[in-house]
Every structure is written in structure tokens, then in C-alpha cells.
């Protein structure tokens, strides 16, 4: 089972249109396509899921346990407000790496706290789309 | 395209029953009917949407971009907790005016901060159902 | 109408697997079965609902008004983040008792504040699965 | 008695010169002239008063009670520092709507708290000069 | 040894006279009499103790260890100020459930923190006199 | 020189009309008349001054130094915001007692801090119009 | 029944020895003797009680209800820490004026908050031993 | 036009009498005379203005724009409370240097924040009367 | 007079049973016996007093003034809540060293502030039972 | 010039001995050796530098500008206290990625704020020694 | 001995390259050369020292005592973090004026507090390179 | 190996000259000489090290591990700012007792938090030079 979940939170479906200074100009579809190809070359399978619904993200993580070897989670704005997402990650036996496209430390004060971060493996932020590949490399044990 | 979105957040479907001291006694349906008629007289079309789901509100806003000339948003309790809604408004090319029926400044401390407000055009609060019409007037450029 | 709602918030579907130090080893299904039998012996009917969606919990509470004599709500992580849930409870004519399995006061700082608590009848926390029965006893007026 | 007070706080006499990014390029005189004409068409009379003195603003409000049907107050910087202005509004039998040209929520942190707001009818901010007309509409009961 | 301590903190001797909106109209004696009878029917013995002295409450708890199977503690105002009471509960091998008659979450801010709560089994608040019976049920293992 | 200044801050000219629950129903004129008569019987002279202008209050205090044996100051809302008034009191060789009609401790949080208080002789609050006489008694050395 | 309680909190038995810069050089006995004589001349009776025990102060207040027409309370350090004392004052039908010898506003930060103050009639602080007489004058209705 | 405004805030008219430990013993008149002579020798003209009125200081700054090449402002206590003064400085095209006689960093906590400072050129504090000359040197470009 | 007071605060009578990870396994009696013998060898006399009552600790300190050359005080939980104990130490002419068995800095946040510490000679914490001997050595002038 | 700086902050020379739960058991030398070999295979050169001196780390970064294509910085404890290090990174034309071995979000509160983070490209934390390679991949543009 | 120390903190060696918006384009060498010439014309000698090491700055100040008549210190980022530097200034008999090139009040929040400032003579900030000359003028007594 | 490190932080080389009210008049050399002699009499060896450099203190501690049986550390101002020093102590297998000459609790607010304290054995503060001997006694097991 060499399958990983790439889980995208709210508004990431706007990628490419949304504040390009922070998030770049590539669309989510393009980014996923590139990631899929990259994964393919390494013999792993990626499942992509984007949702603007907190509950759906929670259920996607719950559903990945046992089926996937790990998850890369960009919780978007839920990072700063969702105790439920945090509880989900803490409850599951599924390694999660949290990824943010932009450098949260250089933005508004309320973005500096991630409720999820404490219960993930670790966090990568500010490295743009690279963050997903780097997180996968860590989960695959091939840094 | 003289179409505007009137987007109502959580519990606004209870309008008329819910804490009338804060919110008045008119039901949401009655209020929407009155607004529709008012809009009709001014040659504009209103789309009404109420949801108790944060994700649904986000998607309603995303869907209005390009189709509507602006949105009047009463985010209800999400005003104080939803970074995702804020990110959505900031990402879209859609003028949004935030409306609250009650005067948030005269209520609990946690209602004083609106996460959304900073990325909207502006805020109208405490003026009851009038707030929607006034917000529309501003968006229509006919104060 | 001797019907009560037992409403379970996010991640409670993981009960038994999730952090057993805090939440015990009984599954949600087992707990509900035991509660149903207990209720049956006392001549009342329980409706069970679990959701990871804030909006769905709000709507379950809205739907119980008029149909149920009270609700036992375990808001899970939403207790600490959801103004919308609080507004819902404040708006309805439905007595609600908030229950938490674990003792929130002995955990992370952010779990000490429940936004909902101020508008419920009261709170029971830290007494494990007993909390549900005790809350029901209070609502039934048979402590 | 169809008379309303339009009360302008400190530095609003600089309008048009002052930080046009926040406040626009129209002078106070021009704005007042336009408002007067607008009011005239609707059969109401506006009294305009601008002052850089907290005490003078307080006295203008005290003097309007009984003579005017309401007041539109742009307290400028006093919004954030003047308990005396707040006490004045709370003491009078005069409906007051607070207006700010710029969106305070998008500016410095200390501008987010308005001491006056809690005792006014409500607040309109960020809608530029439109705010005055919209506030008057609410006071006139003709949204 | 089926004995439990019911320990009442400061001002609970005023019960019935004190702020009936929060505390009801039953006197402490009446409440204790009713509790004693209730306990009797269930074959357990209750020891009642009320004190306005922090030190006396501490010593009552110390004295119950080994003699009682558990304690129901209404610490009154000491909940919010007494580190000593907390240390006592933490030190003893005696299960304690904290009970408050009123819903502390709906009152002054300083009542929201209970120093004791973190070291008790759990807390019941806002359920009035029912709280004592419910706490005893939990301690007896008969919810 | 048995002369004392009774200095009244902003909105005290509204006394009797303003929030009678906090401030009573006697007008400022009536209160001053009663105080003058009371003073007369005790062989002292009172100077009364009310102003809504911070600067005028400062100058009244500056002008009293050397001429008056003490001052009774009700700074109204300036108590909570005026560093300038505080600096004035600290600078002068004039004993000042601060008086508030209402009990500030029982009102909004921002009323709990008086910037002036630390540099006055002391504070009397919550004792209504009695406060002025009691303050004068202290200044006269005839408690 | 023209009887009043003068209740002195912790360490006031050290008066005269304790930090004379704050508290003066008169002993508690001397001060009480002077107060008794002063009261005698006005046809009222004073009961004096000093205690270093929070519970004893609470009980002294409880015992005065119905017997005394009012109480002058110097809660000493308990003013800043005792929720129990506050609850007692709030529960009783006994007018209480809080007195502090020194000006708390000019001392350490933690002395600026009095938990009791909000539920007393009012507070006199910084006027030394005069405070007791002034408080009694207010309670007697003879300022 | 080699003219500069030297603007003195509240209580600076007390200079020489006021807390000499912080402010020295020279009167304001003497200081201004010495400054005028010093300016004269350097071929510049100084305008002196002192006011205890916030509004008057605002208007003095507004009046200096276009007429003066810069302003030295000692806002006194208004530095810590006046948003209106800050807004004025931000609005004008007039370089302002803020001067404080005493070292604010070594005094009360509330003196550490200057609302004005962020919108001036810079601040000189703690260097006594020298501060004015040094500020003028900077404005003249002759350090 | 080579007499010292060793004063033990609330719950120290539980020593040996209470959270041995923090407080060790020696009983208070055993510790006192060892200390008495140690003192005896050095020609000094120790008075031991333990109390769970704040007022009793205050009175023990008051009673030691003039009779003892110094006091070693373990205020237990009162360190963090008792202003009255602090006032007592500040009032007396008796050198006091504060001792805590455990390292308060490594425990809950609220244990980091000792109200008493500022008015004692100094504090020893985290060195277990050694702390008492070390404190006595300092008081005896024989480190 | 395919050269990168790997800069290690205070106590990283203890790696392998220091709190293995957080930092693993590999020594710094071993880790550097492995990294060097890894870099070699990719045709880049790494410069390693460890220092316990804030100034030395600043100078190492300053010295890398112009010579290296980027830097991987593990600032250790300086992340939370060094404004000087932050200023250095902000001043240089050198891309820096901040790496932490442990997940700072899961540790003490003061570790949650990194002063440096806001001025780096981004941050990787919690992924152990993998962090260095992932950061280098990003800097090399080969994720 | 007409000798003064000009002490430059961390990263000031980058002057001219570092964030020119805040710090200007002149290099440290050029600035020092200009200062030396300026000093020379006034018959005083300047010693220049720049260091990125907190300890070295401390030792430079310690070494100047007795040899120099005063010091101009630009502590750079250490202003906000170094208690040790503050203690050094407080300990020495050497007048120190703190200088910052940029206006700290207009930058990040953490730059608003200078630990050193309270123990220096005073602070000049925001006046660019002029600050050094102005500080020297004050120390020389020739403003 | 009966060797102990006595490690002195920044500015302790100024001992005797520096703020004698806090630190006494004995020089560091004199104090070390006295300590050495004292140690000699007890058959132990002391190594003395003073540094104004955070990095040097860290390295001194690292170097003592394995060679010394314990360390007495006076971190001076670094106690309040150095996470690196804390990490060092936490990492080493070396018992450390933290000593401060003055009573930090009676000084500025920022001195009340010691970052190091939580990871040392314990803290002695306010007992002057005695602190070093008392700390050594604890480390030697001969209180």
C-alpha cells in the first residue's frame, strides 16, 4: 500500500486566482497534475481531495487511516480555527505533515497559531508548491 | 448583469423566533420577500441564500464572482471564527459588504472582532433589516 | 412526547479508537446501544445523531425544537470555536445540557473555554459516558 | 421637526488633503454641499458641525437633543479614546448612527475598538461618503 | 464502607436567601435533608459539612480520605481563588466531583476558571441541586 | 482662605436626565445649590465649575492652586482617558479628592481604571451626591 | 436599631506598626476608641471586629444582617483575592461601604482590583482613618 | 520661509513648578526666551504655542502647514491618549519631531506608548530642554 | 534569643503521601524531627507550626515578631493567592525566607508568581527538604 | 557557485546526547557527514558551521552572502529571542530556510514564536534530520 | 579627557546595504568618517566600535567608564532583547544616549520596547545619522 | 572528582561597583577568594568562570559535564532572555542550581521570569553571596 492522501482545505480551489503574491499563479488542477506525475515516477499513488467543508476534511482524514501511508494536509484557514480538525489528527493512526504555501509567520498575527500543528508530525510553510513534494518525501522516508 | 447576492449565515433561518431583542420579529422569508420587491422596483435582481454551513457560504461567494456585481453578507457567528470565509472574500474579485442586524459592539466581547470585516468593503451593524438595503445601495452606487 | 436528542459532535464516531486515556475504549455504537436500553427502561425515547459538520449539528438542534423535550450535546471541538452553535442554542426553546467525556480543565488551555456553555442549562465534564445519563436525568427531572 | 445633525470630529476639516487612500479626495465643504442638496430633495434639513474639540462635539450633541430627530456622528479619532463622548451619547434621548469613512477593521489595531459604538444605534464603516446618506436613511426610516 | 462526603463551601449556609436567580429558594438544611433521604433509599450514608473557612474545607477533605468512598465538593467562591484546596484534592486518594449550583459560564469572567477543577474527576455546573445527586451517582457507579 | 473648588467633568451638566439608575434624578444646579448651603453653614466657600472640555478642567485646577485649600474633582469620563488631567493634579500643590457618583467597579471594565486616582489624595465612588460632602469633610479635616 | 458593624480585615491589628507611610501611626485600638466616642456623640452604636480569617469576616457580615443597619468593611488584602467575601456581601441584605486607609491606585498593580467593590454600595480609599467616619455618615444618611 | 513651530502640550505652562525631578526648574517662558535667542543667532524664526486643549494643538499644527518648515511637538500627556493628534500629524505635509523632557521609558508603563510617535519623523526623549534644539537642528538639516 | 520559626502552610501535613514526585516521601513529623536535631547541634531552637488556615499562618508570623530572630516560611498554595500573608510579612520586623520543596518554575503557570516573595528576604525553591536548613543558615548568618 | 551554508545554532553540538525524545540519537558530526555525502551525489557543496554564539551566527550569514546560493539555518533557541539574527537575515540578499528538528508547536509556549521566521523563505519543523535535505532541495529548486 | 564612545550594535556593519528604506544608503565607514571629522572640528575625540556580539558591546561600555565622558549607543536589535546590556548601562558611571536610525514606533510591535532605554539618559530615534551628532551635542552640553 | 563549577553571568565582573543596593559592595574577586577558601575547608574544589558572552557560558556548562559534580549558575540578565542557556542546562547531565544575589521578585516585572529556572534543580534568590554557599551545600548533599 504505497498510497498517500493530499488534502487541500478551503479556498485552495481558487489557487492561481487568489492573492498571487502569497499563493502563486498555478491552478490547483495544474499543481495536482504535476504532483501526480511526480508521484508516478516514484512508484507511489496520490489521492487528491479539496474541500471547503471542515467536516469533509475530517472525514477524508478518517477515511485515509488504514488505506494510506500518510497524509499531506494544507488546512488553509482551518489551521487557525478548527479544534475538530486537530482532534481528528490526534485520534488517527496516520502520519500527517501540515503544509502551507505562504510563510504564515510573515502575515497577520492570527495566522501564526496553527491548532493542528501540535499534533502533526511537523510543518512546512512558505516554500510554495514545493512543500507538498517535500512533505511526501519525508513520509516516504526518502528526503 | 445587475444581480446581487444576499448571503445569510448560520441561524438566520431562525429569524423572527431568535432573541427578538437583538434580531426583531420578522421571519427570514418575509424579509427576503420585502427585499426582493424593493430590488424589483430598482431594476436589480437579488439572489438569496441562507446556510448554516461554513463551506456552503464559501462556495456561494465563489459562485457569485463573475455572475453578481456584489454581495451583501451577514456571516452571523462565522464573522468571529471563520478564517476560511475571510480568505474567500480576500481571494475573490467581488465587492462584499458585511451586515449585522444587531449592534455587535453592545454585546459579548467576542462579537467585537470580525475576521471578515478587514477584507470586505465595509460593515453596517446595528441598523436591523435596513442594513441589507443600505449595503445594496452602496454596491449599486445609489446611496 | 418523551423524546430526547443525544447529539454527538466531531470525531465522536472515532470513540474507542481515539486517545483512550481521555475517551475510554467503548465505541460510539456500543455506547448508544447501552444508552438506548437504559432509556427504554425509563420509558423515554432517544434520538442519536453524530456529525463532523458544524452546520449539521446546528440543524439537528433546530430540528429537535418542538419535537424533543431536551437535548444532550457533546459539541466536541466545536465547543471551543463555534459561535454559530452557541447562537443556535441561545435561539431555540430547547433545554440543552453540554457533556464532555474528558475533564477539559485538565487538558490544553484552549479547551477551558466553551463558547456554548454560557447558553446551555449547564455542563457535565470529566465523568465519561456517565455524563450522558446524568444529563438526561436532569432533563427528565429525575436526578 | 425634520432636522438632523451631521457631526464631524477631529481632522475631518482636512478631508480631501488627508491620506486620500483612506479618506478620498473630496473636501468637507464639497461633501457637505452635496449632502445638503440631497437632503433638500428629501425634505429634511441638515445641520453641519465640525470640531477638533472633544468638548465641542459633546456640546453639539447635547444641543441637538429635542431639536433634531437624530444625529450622524463621525467621531474620528475620538471614537477610540473618548469615554466622555460615549457617556454623552448614552445620556441623551437622541438616536445616533456612527459613521467612519474608512474601514477601521483594515487599519491599525487601536482603531478596531470604538468606545462610542456600543451606545449608538449602529455603525457604518468603510463605505466612504455614502455612509452619511445611508445613516440618514436609517434615521429617516427610509432605507 | 458506603459513605460519601458532601462538602459545602463559603456562603452556602445562606442558600435560599442568596441571589435566588442563581441559587434557588431551598435552604441548605432542606436540601441536605432531601439528599439524606435520597441516599438512605440507596443504602449509602452521606456526611454533610459546610464551612466558610478554606482551612476547614481542606481538613474535611483530608479527614474523609480512607473513611469515605468519594466526595462531592461545592467549593463556592474558593473554586476561583484557592490553590490550597486544589493541592489538597491533588494530594488525596479520594475521588472528588466538583458541583456548582449555577452555570458559572454564564456569569462574571472570573468565575470561569476553577483552580480545583483540573484535579477533580469532573465538574457538574448549572444543574442546581440536581448536581449533588448526579455527582453521587457517578461516584457510586450507578449513573 | 477657606475656599474649595468643586470641579465637575463632562456630561455632569446632564445630571438628572442622564441614566438615572447610575446618577440619580437631581439636577446639577440643584445639587450645587444644596452643597453651597451646606458649605455656608460650615463657614466655607465653594467654587463650582463644570466643563465638557479637558483643557478647561486642567486650567480650573491650575487656577485653584494658591487660591483654594483643596478641590473635589468628578472627572467623569476623563478619569479613564486623560493623562493630561493626571499630570496636572500631580504637578499642583493642591489636595484633590476624586469623586464618582456611581460605583465604577460595578460597571464596564474600562471604568475600573482611573488614571487620575493614583495622584489624588483618594477616591470616593458609588455614594452618590454624598461623595462631594464627604470629600469636603476630609479636605476640611472635619470627618 | 441604630447599630453599625465596623469590620477590619487581616493585619489591621498591626495598625500603627505596619508601613506607617501607607497606614499612619495610630493603633487599631486608639482608632476604634476614637470612632466609638464619635459614634456615641451621634447616638449610634458601633460593633468592632477584626479578624485575620476570611471565614470569620464572612461570618461577621452574615451575623450583622438584620441586627445592624449597615457595615463599614476594610477587607485589607482579601479585597484582592476573596471571591467568597464578595459572594457574602452580594448575598446579604446589608448595605456595605468598603474602606481602605491607603490609596490603592497609587500602589502595586494587584491592589487596583477589588473583588468586593462591585457588590458594595461604594468605596472610599486613601483618606486614612477619616474613611470610616465618612462611610458611616453615608450609611446614616447624614453626609 | 525659515519659520518653525514649537508646540507645547498640556501642563507645560507649569514648567519649573511641576515635578522638578522629571522636568527641571526652568519656567516655560525662560525656556522659550532662550530658544528664541538661540534661533535668532541661526537666522530662523520660532513660533511658540502652548495649550492644554487637544483641539487647539491640532489646529496649531493644521495652521502651521504651508507656513512653517517643520514643527517640534511636545504633546505632553496627549502623546499617550490622543488618536486625533496622531491623525492630524499623519494628515499634514509638515515634518514633526516629537520631544519629551523626561525619559518616558523610565516612568509609568502607560507612558511607554506614544500614539503620535509612529507618524512623526522621530522622537527625542529624556534629554531635557536640549531636546528642542536638537529637534530643530534636525529639521534645519544642520545636526 | 536564638529562636526561629519554621512555618508550614496548607497541605504540608500530608507530606510523604502527597505527590511524591514533587514533594518526596518523608513525613512532616520526620522532617521536623530531623530539623530539630540539626538545630540542636547548632545551639538554636526551632518552633514548628503547620496550618491549613491562612489566618493562623498570619497570626503565627505576627506572634513570632520580637520573639524569634527569623522565620522560614513554606506558604504552600497561599504563596500564589494570599495578599494578606504578603501584607503581614511586609508589616513585621522579622526576616522571612520563603521555601518551596518543589521547583515552582517547572510546574503550572500559576505557581510561577509568589505574592509573598517580593517582601521576603529571598526564596529557595526546588531543593527539597534541604531548603529549610539552607534558609536557617542564611538567617543565622552561617551559610 | 553551487555552494550552500548549513548553519547550526546553540547546543546543536550536543546532538545525540541532548533530549533524544526531541532530537534523535545521531551526533552532529554523523549528520553532517551524511549530508555532505548526499550533497556530493547532487553536485553541490555544503559548508557546515555550528556556534553557540549569536554574533558568530550573524557573521556566518553575513559571510555567506555573495558566496553561497542559500542557507539552511537551525537557529536553535535563538529563534525565540534574537532580534539581531532576524535583522541579519532581513538585511542580506541570501535565501534562508529555517529548520527545526523537533515540532516546536508541540512544545513550550515560548517556542511557538520564531522571530526569524517572518524574514526567511519559510520554515520546516518537526521532520527531524530530513528537514535539512528538504530545505536544500527547495533552495536548489529540485523538490 | 574629551573622548566619547560611539558604539554600534549588530548588523550596523551592513549599513548602506541593509533595508535602505529604514537605514539609508551611507556605509558605516562613511558615516564614521564624517562623524570623526565633525568631532574633530569641535575638539573632541570619538572612539568607534561595532560588534555583532552582545558580550563585546557590554565590555566596550565597561571599558569606556572612566576613560570616556559619555557614550552614544545604537544597540540595534539587542535593544529589544538584552537584559544584560541594560544591566551594564545601569551599573556604570557613564552617561549613555541611545540612538536608533529608524523610527521604531513605526515598525513591528516588538521594536517598541527598548529594555535599555529606561537606564539611559534618553533616546533619539528616527532621525537617521543625525541622531549620533545630536546625542553627542547633548553629552557635550552644547545642544 | 569533588569539583564544582561556579559560573557567573554578564556584568558580575562589576560586582561591588554595580548598584550596591541590590548587589552589595564586595568585588567578584573577593567573593571568589572567600568561596575558594570555604570550599577548601570542606575538601572540594571550585572552578570559577565569569563571562559576558552567552555562548561562553553555554560552553562552560558543556565543558563541566563529566568533569564536575555540579554547577552553581548565576545567569544574570541571561536568565530572562536566553532560551539557548536553558536548552543547554536541559541537555546536560549536570545538576545546576541557579543563584541570584538580589530578590528578583522585588524588582522589575521582566525579572520575575527565569527561562532557565524550570530546567535547573532549583533556585536561590535574594540571599546575597550566601546563595553560592547554600547552593554548593545542596549539591554536596550537606545542607
Major β-sheet of chain A, in short? 5 strands, parallel
Order of helices and strands of chain A: EHHEHEHEEH
Mean pLDDT across residues of chain A: 95
Oligomer: homododecamer
Low-pLDDT windows of residues of chain A: none
* Total individual domains of chain A: 1
Helix content of chain A: 25-40%
SS field, number of helical segments of chain A? 5
- Count the beta strands of chain A: 5
Query: In what order do the strands lie side by side in the largest sheet of chain A?
Result: 2-1-3-4-5
Biggest interface in this structure? A-J, 26 and 26 residues
Overall 3D form of chain A: globular
How much beta of chain A, percentage-wise? 15-25%
Structural class of chain A: alpha/beta
Q: Radius of gyration of chain A, rounded?
A: 14 Å
The name of the CATH superfamily of chain A reads: Dehydroquinase, class II
Q: Look up the CATH topology of chain A.
A: Rossmann fold
Q: Quickly name the level 1 CATH class of chain A.
A: Alpha Beta
* CATH architecture type of chain A: 3-Layer(aba) Sandwich
The N- to C-terminal Cα distance of chain A equals 19 Å
Amino acid at each position: 500500500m504505497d498510497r498517500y492522501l493530499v488534502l487541500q482545505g478551503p479556498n485552495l480551489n481558487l489557487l492561481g486566482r487568489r492573492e498571487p503574491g502569497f499563493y502563486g499563479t498555478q491552478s490547483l488542477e495544474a499543481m495536482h497534475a504535476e504532483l501526480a506525475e511526480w508521484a508516478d515516477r516514484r512508484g507511489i499513488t496520490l489521492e487528491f481531495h479539496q474541500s471547503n467543508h471542515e467536516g469533509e476534511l475530517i472525514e477524508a482524514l478518517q477515511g485515509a487511516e488504514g488505506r494510506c501511508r500518510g497524509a499531506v494536509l494544507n488546512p488553509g484557514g482551518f489551521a487557525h480555527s478548527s479544534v475538530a480538525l486537530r482532534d481528528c489528527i490526534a485520534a488517527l493512526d496516520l502520519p500527517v505533515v501540515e503544509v502551507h504555501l505562504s510563510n504564515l509567520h510573515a502575515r497577520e498575527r492570527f495566522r501564526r497559531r496553527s491548532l493542528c500543528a501540535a499534533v502533526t508530525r511537523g510543518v512546512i510553510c512558505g516554500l510554495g508548491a514545493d512543500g507538498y513534494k517535500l512533505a511526501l518525501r519525508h513520509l516516504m522516508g526518502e528526503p
